[in-house]
Amino acid sequence: MITLIRHYEAVIQATSKITKNSSFYISTNISNTEEFRVLELVPNSSRNVKRIKRQPIAVKSTPRADRMPTDQNWQAIWPTARTFHPDTVPLPLRQGYKHNKNPHPNKHANTELMKIPNFLHLTPPAVKAHCEAIKKFCTKWPIGLETDEACEKHFPIEIITSDYCYSSPTIREPLARIVNLRVRLSSLHLDAHAKDKLLRLVGDRYNPKTGIITITADKCPTKKQNLDYVNYLLTALFHVSWRVEPWEAEKSEVDMEYYDWDKNKSRDSLVSMYSWPNPSIDCNYNDIPHGTEYKSAVSDLINNGEDHFSINKYKQAVKNVLNLSFNENVN
Predict the structure, then answer these.
(1) CA-CA distance, 274 to 283, in Å (whole number)?
(2) What would the pLDDT profile of 272-309 be if each residue is shown by its tens digit?
(3) In 140-244, where does DSSP find H-type helix?
(4) What is the pTM of this model?
(5) Closest CA to 299 of 247, 256, 255
(6) Starting at the edge strand that comes first in sequence, how are the strands of the sheet with 206-207 ordered?
(7) Quick one: which H or E segment has residue 318?
C-alpha cells in the first residue's frame, strides 16, 4: 500500500513539471510570432510584389506560306479534305465583310474560311494521280457502245440520282434519296392496246414531245429503297398494260376513249374508193398514196380537237388523197 502511494506521488510531480514547461513554451511561442493575418476581400495593390519581367523573344522567321516553292508537291501537303489552314495555303485568299470601307479580311484568323468545306485537295494533278491509281481496277469500255444511240438501244433505262457535299452533323442529305427513272416508250415494245393502257396509267409522267416516261420516287428514306421502288413500278406498269380484262373485249366503237381510224368507217370509205369499181375491204391502206397522211390527219382532228393547224392538215391530206390541186386562195 505504501508503495502505491509513493508511485502516485511521483506521477503527480512529473505531470506538474510537464504542464509548467508546456505553458512556458506556448506563451513564449505566441509572444514571438506576428499577429494573425487579416482577410482582405479586395487585395491591396500597393503591396510590393516581386514580379519577374520577361524579355520579349525576337522571332525573325518568314511564314510557311511565303517559304513554299512554286513547284512543290501539293498532293503531299494537302492530301485529303481538311479544315482551312492559312499558313499551309500559299494563296492570298480573302473572305468576309467589314462594315467600314476596309478591304475584306485576309486568310489569317478568318473563321469564314475555316467553317466552309474546301476542295483544295481536288486539284487537277491530284485527280489525275487518283485516276492513275484506280485505273488498274477498271475494265475497258464495251465494244459496240461508242455512240449515245447504241447505249440507248442496249440500255434503254436511265437512272438519275444526285449526291451532295455539304456541312452538316449528318452525312445523309435528304435530297440524295430522290431517284428518277427514264425510259423511252418505243423501247418497251408494246402493241396498240398495251401502249394506250400504259399511257393512261402513267398520266402526265409521259412527255409526248420526247417520248420518254419519267418515274420519280422519294417516299423511302434511302436511295437504295427508292431505286428498288421505281424498278418495281416499271415492272408492274409493263405487265398490267399487257393484261386484257374481260370487260375490255366487250368494248365497242362507241365505248372507245379515243378515235381508232382502223376500226372506223373512214378507213372503209378510203379503201373502197381507191379499189373502185371492185371495192375490197381487205385492201391495205398503206398501198394507197398519201393514205397514212390521211389517217394521221383524221385522227388528230378528232382526238385533239379542231384548231387552225389540225384543220389545215386535214385539208391538205384530203387534197393529196384525191390528187387535187386547188388554188390556195380558194377556201
Answers:
(1) 9
(2) 777 776 666 566 666 778 888 888 888 888 888 888 88
(3) 148-154, 192-202, 223-242
(4) 0.53
(5) 256
(6) 158-160, 179-184, 212-217, 206-207
(7) helix 308-321
